[in-house]
């Protein structure tokens, strides 16, 4: 079954998730992509998030004009991932099925507003 969403028409909602957890393999892939040592890539692109419930490496964020913040690896002007071939596994699997709830919401709003580029404000 073909996915029922089009990432090219989305302003990068999934990249605005506050906690985008990455694995050691993901960090190594980013290091290779940028020609960096593993530890340099870890420091540059991630930070450690620790609570009683979690101990994760999270992708760093940057300020964004649509969402409060987005993944540091996201181009905020083009609204695209800058490391798509080297993106982490969590990004490769999103939205974990054939349907993206945000895309459905966005499509509805664009049809309702009669504006194919409409982006709901926060």
Set down the secondary structure blueprint.
Elements: E1 21-22, H1 24-34, H2 38-45, E2 46-50, E3 55-59, E4 61-63, E5 69-71, E6 74-75, E7 80-81, H3 89-93, H4 101-113
Antiparallel strand pairs: 1-3, 2-3, 4-5, 6-7
Offer a few descriptive terms.
alpha+beta; 30% helix; 122 residues; single chain; 4 helices; two-stranded antiparallel sheet
Short précis:
This protein has 4 helices and 7 strands, in the order E-H-H-E-E-E-E-E-E-H-H.
Q: Can you give a write-up of this model?
A:
The protein has one domain. With 122 residues, the protein is an alpha+beta fold. The strands form 3 sheets. It has a 3-stranded antiparallel β-sheet. It has 4 helices and 7 strands. Helices cover 30% and strands 18% of the residues. The termini are far apart. It has helices spanning 24-34, 38-45, 89-93, 101-113, and strands spanning 21-22, 46-50, 55-59, 61-63, 69-71, 74-75, 80-81. The mean pLDDT is 91.
């Amino acid at each position: 079954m073909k996915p029922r969403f089009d990432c090219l028409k989305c302003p990068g909602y999934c990249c605005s998730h506050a906690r985008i957890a990455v694995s050691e393999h993901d960090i190594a892939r980013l290091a290779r992509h940028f020609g960096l040592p593993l530890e340099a890539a870890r420091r540059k692109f991630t930070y450690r998030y620790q609570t009683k419930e979690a101990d994760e490496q999270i992708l760093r964020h940057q300020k964004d004009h649509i969402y409060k913040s987005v993944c540091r690896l996201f181009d905020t002007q083009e609204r695209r991932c800058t490391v798509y071939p080297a993106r982490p596994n969590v990004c490769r699997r999103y939205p974990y099925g054939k349907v993206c709830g945000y895309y459905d919401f966005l499509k509805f709003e664009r049809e309702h507003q009669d504006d194919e580029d409409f982006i709901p404000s926060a």
